[in-house]
Every structure is written in C-alpha cells, then in structure tokens.
Design goal:
The complex is a heterodimer of chains A (798) and B (278). Chain A has 798 residues and is mainly α. Chain A is 33% helix and 6% strand. In chain A, the strands form 6 sheets. In chain A, strands 8-10-9 form a 3-stranded antiparallel β-sheet. Chain B is mostly helical and 278 residues long. Classes of the chains: A mainly alpha (798), B mainly alpha (278).
Chain lengths: 798, 278
C-alpha cells in the first residue's frame, strides 16, 4: 500500500487555498515552494538563498525539497540551481470570484436589454382582456411618461395611489365618491351598521368565525376603516385572464364590524327580503290564486285565465329580474270592463268634467239677478275639475258659494246671490274660453298657475284631446247667446233674458214667436225642451209622454206652446233631439241630418232612445245631462293618468284645495276607470304619487345585493317559483295595507325568504358562497365609457 | 427551565431546527394572510421578507471572510443558512403566487432563484454524502496536493516500467505501461465512475495487470506488485479528486448565481416602486 502523503511540517508545505494565485507548475505536479505574489507574478529565482557561515556559502534548500544540494552554492554566494519561472494560475477561489463577477455582469446586461426593449417587456404579466387594448403604461400609471426610461424618474418622485386611481375613473364612472368604501357615502354605511347592531341580540355584533378570531383577536366594536379605498387595493392587473373583480371573502369583511366564516354559519339573517315595501301594483295573490282564478267570470275567454306564474311573470332586464307581462296579456280579460265601466251597475260610466251646475233660476230672476241664459233643468253639481279651472284664476267664485244650496236660493241674501251670479258668469266665461281659445291654452292657464312644470305632451293629455264640436255643441245647447250675453255683461248691460223674465208670464206666452234663429233665447220657463236634455225617462214612459206631452208631434191647429213659439219643425226637431253631437238643429229646419231624413220618412212610431254613453262606449268625450263627460278609452288612458299625476302633485301646494278633490274623484274606490284599484298611491313628502308601473329594476341605481332569476329558475325543482316564494296565508289583510299612503306599511303576499333557503344550495362545495356572488361592492351603477377621451394631469381627474 | 434544556438535549437537533423553521414559515404564511385580508398590498410585504432572507443567507459568505470578530462558529452560520434557505423557498412560492412567470425580467429572476436554490440543495446533499465517503476511501488527501501526488505516482510508475526493461526482463510491463498505464497515470481518470463510487475502472485495470502476471518471472512479479500498489494509489487519488472536486465545483454555480440574483432583484425592486399603484 502506497502512502501518498505524510502530514509532517517538515515533509509537506502549508497549503493556502485562500490565496488568489497558485504556481503555474502545480498542474505538472512541481509547484515551487514560494508561490506567486499576491498580484499574480512569479517570484521564483533560485532554489535557495545560500547563507555565509564560517566563511563558506552553504546551501539552504529545505528538507521538503531534499535538503542541501550536493554541489552547493557558487563561490560568490549564488545558488547553483535556477528554477524555471512559471505563469501563475488563479486559484479555485479566484476563479470562483471571477465567475461571480461575470455572472453579475451578465445579469446586469440582460436586465439592461430587457428594460431597454420597451414597455411590453416591463410588464410583470399580461393585461386582462378588458384592458388589452391599452398599449401605453401611462394609460393606467400616472407616473409613466412617453419616454422609455421616464419611469425611472417616478422611482424618486413617487406617484400617489389617488393619482393612479383617477386614471381608472376617467373611464369607469364611479359616482360622486369613487374612493369611499362601496363608493357610497360613509355616513350611510354607518347607518346600515347601526341598524344591523339594533337587530343583533344584545345590541352587539358578534364575530362568529374562528378564522377571524385567530386573525384579529380583538373584537372591534366599530369598523376601524373610514378612509379611502383606491382601485388597486382590490383590482390587480397584469394577472392575465384572472378575474379582475375577484375578491376573497376575508378581504370583503375586513372593514365590517360583523365578520363570519361561512354563509350558512354567521352571515346575518335576512331581514324582510326581498320585500321592503308593498308592491306598486295592487294584486292580491292569495285571493286570485285561491278564488278568482279558480272560478273566473263566465265572460272570460277560455284559456285566458292564468294557470301558472309564468303566465303573468317573465324574465326581464338581462334575465335577472322577473317582470310583469302587459295588462293586455294578463289582466284585461277580467279587468277591462272595470276600466271601461261596463261592469258598473249604476251611475254614469264617464267622468263629469264640465257641467252646467243647477241654479235656482227662478229666485235669481225674481230678485233681478242677471245671469243671462241658464238651463233651468240642470241639477248637476260643480265638478272638481271645474272648481280647479274656475278658482285657479284667483277669483274664488266656487269657494264663495260653497255654503249655499244653489238649487234653493230663496233664503239667500243679496250678497250671496251676487256670488252666485259671479259663479254663473265665471262658468260662462270658462265655456266661452274653451270654445274660442286653443284648448291646451285654455286648460293650460290654470295649470301653469299652479307653478307645476308641464311639458306640451302632458298638457295635451290633460286636455284629453276634446273635440271642438263637443264644447261648441254644449254651448249652443246650453248657452245659445253666450257671446252676446258676455259682451252685454262686460258692458254692464242687462241681458235680454233678464228683461224677458221680468215680464209677466202671460206676456211671455203672448209675445211674437221667436224667429228661428240660433241666437234666439230659449224659453226658460217652458217645459223641458227635449232637445236640451236626454230623455231621462224609460222608453215606455217616453212613449206615453210623447203621445200626451211635450214630445208629441204637433197636430194641425195645436195650440201647444211649442206651436206658438213657431217651432213648426218641432216634429223634425224632436226626432233629432238626441242627436247631440250633430249640433243644435236649426229651428228653421235648415239642418238636415240623416236622422231627420230617416225619421221623416219613418212611420209615426216610438222614437229610438239614443244613449250617448253607449255611443261613447269605446271612450272619449260625450254630452249627457248638462255635463260633458269623459269615458276612459282603455287601459293607460292618458287623460286619466295625466290628471291623477297632476292632481297628486298638487298636495302640499297652494292649490291643494282645488286639486285634492280632483284627485279624490279619480282615485276613490268607485271612481270611473278604477285606476287606483290596481295602481297604488304612495304619499311621498306630502304628494300623492300613483304608481303606474310595477317595480322597474333599471331605476335602482344603488344596490348592495344582486340576484339573477334565470339560473335559479333553471335549478328549482317541482315546486317552481314556490320553492322560494311561498304564499303568506297567515292572518293579514293585504288590501287594507293600501289604505294608507305609506309603502313601508304593508302585508306581503309572500313570506319573506329566509337565509336558510339560500344556504341550502349555496355552500362552498356546491353553488359557491363568495360574497361577490350576491353582493356588489360598487353599489352605484358603474358607468363605462369605452373609448372616451381622457384629459388628465397628474393629480387632477377629468 | 432545566427540564426544557433536557428536552432539547434529547430531541434530535435537526428535528428541532426543522420544527423552528417550519414554525417560522407558518408564521410567515399567517402574517402574509393577515396583511392580505387587511387590504394591504401583500406582495410588498412578502417581497421584502424574501429579500431580507436572501441577505441573511448571503451573510454566511461574509462570516467566512470576517475571522477576527467573534461572530460565532461558521458551522452555526451554515445551519442558519440551511434553514433560512428552507424558509426562503416557501416565501418565494408565496411571492410568485405559485405560478410560472410571464415576463422576461420575472423569468430571469425566477431562473436565477431556481439555480441558486437548486445548487444549494445539491450542495447541501453532497456535503452530507461525500465527506463520509472520502473518509472511508483510502487515506486523507488534501485536494490542493493532488496534482503533486499524481505527478509523483506517474514518475514512480514510469521509473518502474523503465527499470523492468533494463533489468533484462521482457518488455511486458513496459508495454502494458505504454498501452494502458501511461495514460492512466497522466491525469485524473474515471471521474464519473468515482462519483458513482464505482470500482469498475479499477477492477478493469487490475485485471489487465493480472493478465500479464503469468508471463513474468519473480522480479517481474515484484515489479508488477509495486505497479499494482501504484495503480491502487492512483485510483484513490482520482477518487479524491472527483469527489473533492465536486464539493468545490457546485459552489461555482451557487455563488455567482446568487450575485446575479441580487442584481436582478434590485432592478425588480426599482421597477416595482416606479410603477407602484399604492
């Protein structure tokens, strides 16, 4: 066995591996003992340095190299053996150091190449698909400039998070407080927290999650976070196709006082979900599903009765919300008659809009109160519409006579009679204005006096598109000499009517027959003129009266008052009496209507009873009983809607006294059209607002929760909608809740949805329970403006 | 507290160190998670912790350079280096979100870190395996003297071969030396085999020697025996050269990659703060 080395200081030299250089002869196995200098130069010369001792030079070669040589030094003291010089080599450590320097230089070079190649190489990752069109860093990084190395400047002069976030909101509209938590006013959030605290047992909010207890041992009594939340806090770009909006449940809750671990365990119970107010459309599901739809009226078309929820409800607005199908599709088969009045047993089917109120004409004549022509058979009372139109001028003519019985003024004082006269003349001026002035203007004057802004379309709706002939015919029938009377009255002159009334009755009877003139005054004391009013008697009675009374055809030599009045054509006129919409037939018989022709040639038999209300069955204006009435033309009648809206907004205004009766007349339980039977009325800041439309989710601009019906509909079982929406059968009166105008006071048709219903499916393993699945962080509607130009400077948003 | 001291003495120190390192890593994960849910940009937190750990790891080199100050034994520092490195790997995974990079600079960072970690793990493993192997394989040999010793063996073998011819014997030994042994003694041989602790090359050469023994007389056999000893010694020398060399070579990857990683990390930090959105 060969022993390679001996560890003896005499036989081996001391190795110095930390030296930077080694002898070049080491590879040959013959390194010198001296070794290179620290700076890498060979120091070797001779084998030894001879020493002079006792006059003789002695070799000093080390024992490791064999001890003193045989030949010894030269006489001059030089060593006789010269070593060959070498090229020193770097030691292992030196080589390692060189390698480190080269590696560092290489890394720096690569970094420089990468940084100098352009923006795309600086990105730490791919942009999300939404922002992939952005090619400049400066689009989102406020500090970045157009130059390649401008970003270096920002390393020193840092840009704040708000400046970067301002670039985000230059495209993404986040409302007035974009950096507030939930982009919602902090005070509003605090109120929500307090309401949650009030609902919690013991008034405190418990942290029910062991995760949170470990992470945040101290239970906060209030949210510590009242500052700002910038966009990059939650939205991390440069993550490629990762969801930019994904936020973990823990991060969602970090600001919340109440923290919990899972949805089923710890999430606050739902409170009045999803109904926090009564429905805008009054529909009692309980009664309909349990009674009406099971036993529909016989008049209903078979197949028109809804059989399931889907027959009335449909997915709307991105298939997230459930909307209602149209009235025509769902409700009209049963309720159309309510609107048109065909189901009304008694009373008129149209709304009295303009009337000639009944006055005690005789007393007025006796007391010489001049009101001109006035039908003396009217028993109509002033309508709320007329009160509004008359009192809006400021004259208060209606309120002045409110305490009087207009049909019996025998005990009225002169002052009262003067008020009655003022009322009468105001009504006449109103009718005159309606005839002669543009309808929208005539109605618009009192409307504009209410200081409520109305556009032209709504004004048109308020006017109801009344035909001119309607008012014209009314005036001709009720006030044949309207204009003349008004002119005389304005001059302070007496009207011919009053003059006539002051003559003895016999004088009236003996007076020359009045010429057939449309301007002639009617005989106010004569028997009721068949032309001026509808035949209110039954057909049988009408026949009797026709034979025996006023309506009987004139016989030759008949001295009836009508004959004395020279109404030779009364026979014809009688037959045209009810043709109210064709104008007042000329007494001279010039008006030749089809009815005249028919009746002239017809045998003398009982005349057909014309019912203008039946004639106007499909809606519109008609005259009946000293009234101009309006009959709704169907669902969503514009006239009804416009007046309900207008009058409802009058509450709390200076015209509330005039408009409130209008509203009450249209919104009462037995009102014509029955609008408020289904359309609820909310009292909002004193105003009365009719809800014409059901809930419109598009109008909700601030939303903390979200729910999409479509995926749930696909997932429910055999119970369908009833899986979540269960009828509320427990003692409540649905309709009573609509008696008050407070939408928060209600009895829901369906039971509230409990959290357990949702938690049955929404677990981490099944349908997921991420906070963002059901909750919005940005509760305001986010406005995206793709492609919008952005103007910004550092620190200043657009 | 004495019982605690006793407990620690009983438990394997490696296990204890591993427990502490794991505890530190868990603590880091927990704090990282807390920072994240507290709406902080957690990448800054775990990034700076990662850089700090890398700096701590580099202190080992500094400790080896500074010998005058009482900074503790290098062995202790090496143990710290090991376990901090173990924790650093976990921090790196957290910082990179357990994903591959997708930009050139991040690829460079990632590659350098993998090189450093990989070479470090390799070095830690072979530092455990090779020294016992060297201890049990022949005599102790200083690596720096291997070239000298190799030259000595080569001279001896050549002298032996020449002497065998001049002594009047056949040129068998000389021929064997020229054909096989001359190259064998010229430099390091069979490195891979020695790294695998394989004896195949040694057996092959000795087999060649055994083959010619029958053709030698007694003097030749004596010479052959000496030659055999020289072959054994050369084989041991090559073993030490291969394994000792490996113990020195792996660090040629570990340390340069570390400095390159440090430079790249500095560039990364500058870039991050330049485009910071917080």
């Amino acid at each position: 066995m060969v022993s390679l080395q001996e560890f003896d200081f005499r036989k081996n030299k001391y190795e110095r591996p930390q030296d930077k250089w080694v002898c070049g002869h080491l590879a040959e196995g013959r390194p010198c003992t001296l070794g290179p200098s620290p700076n890498g130069t060979c120091r070797v010369t001779t084998v030894c340095q001879p020493r002079l001792q006792n006059g003789r030079w002695e070799c000093q070669r080390s024992g490791q190299e064999g001890g003193p040589c045989g030949s010894g030094p030269f006489p001059d003291g030089r060593c006789c053996q010269t070593l060959a010089r070498c090229t020193p080599q770097p030691s292992l450590r030196a080589k390692r150091k060189r390698a480190s320097l080269w590696a560092t230089a290489l890394a720096i070079g690569l970094v420089a190449v990468i940084l100098g190649c352009g923006d795309q190489y600086l990105m730490p990752g791919q942009l999300s698909p939404f922002h992939a069109s952005q090619t400049k860093c400066s689009a989102c990084h406020a500090g970045a400039g157009p130059g390649k190395f401008d970003w270096l400047h920002q390393f020193v002069a840092s840009v704040g998070p708000e400046e970067n976030s301002n670039l985000c909101i230059s495209c993404h509209g986040m409302g007035a407080q974009p950096f507030a938590p939930h982009t919602h006013p902090v005070e509003a959030l605090k109120q929500i927290t307090e309401s949650l605290r009030d609902r919690s047992p013991n008034g405190s909010i418990q942290t029910g999650s062991w995760v949170w207890r470990i992470a945040f041992p101290s239970s906060p009594t209030r949210s510590a976070f009242t500052g700002t939340v910038y966009c990059a806090t939650c939205h991390k770009e440069h993550q490629g196709t990762d969801d930019l909006t994904m936020v973990s449940n823990e991060r969602c809750q970090t600001c919340h006082v109440a923290k919990f671990g899972s949805f089923a365990d710890g999430h606050p119970q739902f409170s009045k979900y999803p109904y926090d107010r009564r429905t805008r459309i009054i529909f009692d599901h309980q009664s309909h599903l349990k009674k009406y739809l099971l036993e529909p009226p016989r008049t209903i078309t078979p197949g028109a009765v809804p059989a399931s929820c889907a027959d009335c409800h449909q997915l709307a607005l991105g298939q997230r919300h459930m909307g209602l199908k149209s009235f025509e599709t769902v409700c009209s088969s049963c309720h159309y008659g309510d609107i048109m009045g065909t189901t009304r047993a008694v009373g008129p089917k149209g709304i009295d809009v303009l009337v000639v109120p009944g006055l005690d004409v005789a007393t007025l004549a006796q007391r010489s109160v001049d009101i001109g022509e006035w039908p003396n058979n009217s028993e109509a009372t002033l309508t709320p519409f007329m009160r509004f139109l008359l009192d809006s001028s400021g004259e208060k003519v209606v309120s002045g006579v409110a305490s009087l019985d207009l049909l019996d003024l025998s005990k009225a004082s002169d002052a009262d009679l003067a008020k009655v006269a003022a009322l009468a003349w105001s009504i006449k001026r109103l009718f005159n204005r309606l005839e002669r002035v543009k309808l929208v203007t005539a109605i618009g004057e009192p409307v504009h006096a209410s200081e409520m802004r109305m556009d032209y379309l709504r004004m048109t709706a308020l006017a109801g598109e009344m035909s001119h002939d309607v008012i014209l015919g009314a005036n001709r029938e009720w006030f044949p000499n309207l204009r003349a009377d008004l002119i005389r009255h304005d001059k302070g002159e007496r009207t011919p009517t009053l003059n006539q009334l002051e003559k003895p009755l016999n004088d009236i009877r003996k007076s020359p027959p009045v010429t057939s003139d449309t301007n002639s005054a009617p005989n106010l004391t004569a028997s009721p003129d068949a032309k001026s009013s509808d035949d209110i008697l039954t057909p049988a009675d009408a026949a009797a009266d026709y034979k025996n009374g006023l309506l009987a055809p004139d016989k030759p030599g008949d001295k009836s008052p009508d004959a004395l009045l020279g109404n030779e054509n009364r026979k014809d006129n009688d037959k045209n009496a009810d043709d109210v919409l064709l104008g007042n037939p000329d007494r001279s018989g010039k008006v030749n209507t089809r009815a005249d022709n028919v009746q002239t040639n017809a045998p003398a038999s009982r005349p057909e009873r014309f019912d203008p209300e039946v004639w106007a069955e499909s809606g519109g204006w008609y005259r009946q009983d000293f009234a101009i009435r309006y009959r709704p033309s169907g669902h969503a009648d514009r006239f009804m809607q416009a007046w309900l809206d207008f009058a409802g907004h009058g509450y709390g205004s200076k015209q509330e006294d005039q408009l409130a009766p209008v509203f009450e007349s249209l919104a009462s339980q037995d009102a014509i059209g029955q609008c408020t039977k289904c359309h609820s009325v909310d009292t909002d800041a004193g105003l009365k607002k009719v809800n014409w439309w059901p809930f419109d989710p598009a109008r909700v601009k601030t939303r903390f929760t979200t729910f999409a019906h479509k995926p749930h509909i696909d997932a429910v079982g055999s119970d369908g909608c009833a899986t979540c929406h269960r009828l509320n059968s427990t003692g409540r009166n649905y309709l009573e809740s609509y008696a008050r105008g407070d939408p928060a006071h209600y009895a829901p048709s369906f039971l509230y949805i409990e959290k357990a219903r949702c938690a049955a499916c929404h677990t981490e393993q099944t349908s997921g329970e991420n906070c963002t699945l059901c909750h919005y962080y940005h509760v305001n509607e986010i406005a995206d403006e793709p492609g919008a130009s952005r103007h910004y400077s550092l620190g200043h948003p657009r | 507290m004495a019982w605690l001291y006793l407990v620690f003495n009983k438990i394997n120190k490696s296990v204890l160190n591993l427990v502490f390192a794991s505890g530190a890593l868990v603590g880091f994960y927990l704090e990282n998670w807390r920072q994240d849910i507290a709406l902080h940009d957690v990448q800054y937190f775990n990034g700076w912790v990662l850089v700090s750990c890398i700096v701590v790891l580099m202190l080992l080199s500094l400790r080896k350079c500074i010998v005058v100050l009482p900074l503790g034994r290098v062995r202790l520092w090496l143990v710290i280096h090991y376990y901090v490195g173990f924790v650093t790997v976990g921090m790196f995974l957290v910082h990179t979100k357990y994903r591959l990079p997708d930009s050139p600079l991040e690829w460079l960072l990632w590659t350098l870190f993998i090189l450093v970690v990989g070479s470090g793990l390799f070095g830690a493993v072979i530092s455990r395996i090779i020294p016992p192997r060297l201890e049990t394989h022949g005599e102790r040999i200083l690596f720096e003297r291997i070239p000298v010793l190799r030259a000595q063996l080569a001279v001896e073998a050549e002298t032996l071969a020449r002497d065998s011819v001049s002594a009047g014997n056949t040129a068998t030994i000389a021929k064997l030396y020229v054909d096989l042994l001359g190259d064998f003694f010229a430099g390091p041989r069979n490195i891979v085999a020695h790294l695998r602790s394989s004896n195949l090359s040694r057996v092959r050469i000795l087999g060649e020697l055994a083959l010619i023994e029958r053709y030698l007389d007694e003097a030749g056999k004596l010479a052959l025996a000496k030659l055999r000893d020289l072959v054994e010694a050369k084989n041991d020398l090559d073993f030490h050269y291969a394994n000792g060399g490996l113990l020195r070579v792996w660090i040629f990857l570990h340390i340069p990659a570390t400095y390159a990683l440090l430079m790249t990390a500095i560039a990364h930090v500058v870039l991050v703060y330049s485009f910071s959105t917080r």
